[in-house]
């Protein structure tokens, strides 16, 4: 694979993360869920979601409740191409609740994203985060 192709896949993956940021800030659970594959998994402390519909339902409830007006903070540390169609991203993440300008102490996380290319574009196939001490 050429350097330009590697660069193109990194840019496409960053585009997925940017779309997630935008759709989250809009509080649009349907649009957030479309960033994931049909069979995606999402794992967070105390949460295991299996499939796009479970992700959509979870996000809809969150946007109607505790995450109303929130926005994600996501800074990729590492983008590693596994093959032409799969990329793993390691990010420093957190959630800025309504009115916050920084992630609250104790709420910083590190995340692993598996992002894959499908016929209709790049999608998140798996996501996992855990607290950072």
From TrEMBL:
Matching Pfam families: SnoaL_3
Superkingdom of origin: Bacteria
Stretches assigned to the SnoaL-like domain: 13-128
Signal peptide limits: none
Name of this chain's protein: SgcJ/EcaC family oxidoreductase
UniProt organism field: Dactylosporangium vinaceum
């Amino acid at each position: 694979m050429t350097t330009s192709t590697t660069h193109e896949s990194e840019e496409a993956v960053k585009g997925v993360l940017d779309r997630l940021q935008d759709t989250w800030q809009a509080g649009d659970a349907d649009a957030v869920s479309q960033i994931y594959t049909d069979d995606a998994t999402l794992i967070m402390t105390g949460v295991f979601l299996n499939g796009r519909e479970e992700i959509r339902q979870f996000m809809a409830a969150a946007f109607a409740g505790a995450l109303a007006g929130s926005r994600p903070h996501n800074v990729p540390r590492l983008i590693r191409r596994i093959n032409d169609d799969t990329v793993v991203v390691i990010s420093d993440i957190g959630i800025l609740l309504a009115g916050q300008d920084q992630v609250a102490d104790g709420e910083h996380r590190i995340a692993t994203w598996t992002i894959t290319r499908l016929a209709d574009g790049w999608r998140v196939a798996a996501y996992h985060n855990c607290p950072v001490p």
